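Re: the request from the purification team.
They wanted to know what the chain is likely to look like in 3D before they choose a buffer screen. I agreed to run a prediction and write the result into the notebook, where they can find it.
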Amino acid sequence: MGLKSALIAGVAAVAIVAGGVYFIKQPKPMAPHLDARLSTPLGVTFQKVKIGTVTMVPGASSDQQEQVIVYADGKGKTAYTYDKDTPGKSTCAAECATTWAPLAASADAKNVDEWSVITRDDGAKQWAFEGKPLYTFAKDKVIGDNKGDNADGVWHMATMSPTDGMALPYGIEVREVAEAAGQVIVNAHGMPLYLYGGDVKSGKVQCASGPCGMQWRPVTTGQLSNPMGDFTIVNRDDGIQQWAYKGNPLFTFSGDSDLGDANGQGADKNFQIAMVERYFMPPGVKILLNERKGGLLANADGKTLYARDRISFNGTGGHSARGGDRGNPMVGMTIGLSGCEGDCTKTWIPLIAAKDAQPSGYWMLMDRPDGTKQWAYQGYAVYNYTGDRKPGDTVGQDTYTLAVNDGAEKVADARHGMGLYWRTTSP
């Protein structure tokens, strides 16, 4: 008899194999991302800041400085902590607060995960992370500045460190995974791990459509491994020892091959990506899987989101390549909305934010002349292109507007150097 499987009243799965019958417990439902915490509350963003001496960056044609992710205010200014503060209490006031401005929280802001709202002595609200009040530095002028780091030995950049206090087994790490829009548990090769909602002790893993093949591979432990923190070990009947996170066995997905991939998302409802922190995404914005680009940001209809960037060459892998240059946030802020005005907005449709929208994560807001607000991703205002007809289309990619030098025709603003081009936005 051929392989056949069926679900019985949504309770158990039964598979008939070569005349024998075995029962597999139907996977239990999992909470989305197992309650992965939100990286930033509304009003707080994060930015990539360059630090240290140059190092070789994969995919780049020249040495680059190392980048770290730091928390920032709604305009992208780096946030700092102050060693003289006590948990939940700011001691920087008067002249100190002139140089080190408190990272303000809105009057209706609420505590969320590791983020808390503290009340200053003057009654103003201020954001704190893990009890440490946050500030910006007056001498930081543009996105990416970190001139206040280690000032007087007591001021420090507030870096994103999702693994703080987290015990990790050998060969397991936490990294930013682009297509997952968050900090994800990965293996030693940087490939994301996935949580399984069922029992693997028997070694027979149940996919939504029946017993699984080789697309889902168990994350095995070393012979001398021991449980640590939220990581436990499942001793399977087939002799395999498998890692589990918060009680859910861990797997890799065979469809993930490049750094940043998360192709297992949505491949099977019994598996979900092992996310530690999830990034903010504006309502209606989603990520489309795209092997060539490493993912595409799109609106609710699946229409690709574009940014208008300055034409340049900087040796970081090419803007069209997977993992290539995502642009410089400060350049995006300088271009602002001047990259597409007037009739341009009839072809390139601005992604308008709700009236009460607030910046968070990699997303900021730009004020439009008509009083509305437009979403900006990593410093660049984003748009849809009317020439794209179906979800995933990228017809607008590499649409160039070059500056002319003879003055016969003004096709690009002089502020934009050689000119501007449209590129897709990738997470």
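For the purification team: The radius of gyration is 24 Å.
Please add any questions underneath this entry.
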